[in-house]
Specification:
84 residues, 3 helices, 0% strand, mainly alpha
Length: 84
């Protein structure tokens, strides 16, 4: 069973140099530091709640009395009046 995979990741020079400095200062391997950072980032994304659009539908019983049978253009004209 494979528990590790090798992969290539492109990082900016500045980020890699900072990671190397932190790795040396903390005694962590660069690999351990990168795994920790990725784990933290993934945990933050997992914990974010998914966006759910609230129900903003209007309660009612359909078209107003007198509007049944009108075309869309007629309903639109009544809705917008002079604001067309």
């Amino acid at each position: 069973m494979v528990t590790h995979m090798k992969t290539t990741v492109e990082l900016s020079n500045a980020l890699l140099q900072e990671a190397k400095r932190v790795s040396k200062a903390t005694g962590l391997t660069l690999r351990a530091l990168m795994e920790e950072g990725l784990s933290v980032a993934l945990g933050r994304h997992r914990s974010q709640k998914k966006f759910k659009l609230r129900d903003a539908s209007v309660t009612g019983k359909g078209l107003r009395v007198g509007m049944q049978g009108l075309s869309w253009q007629e309903i639109r004209a009544l809705s917008y009046g002079d604001r067309e």
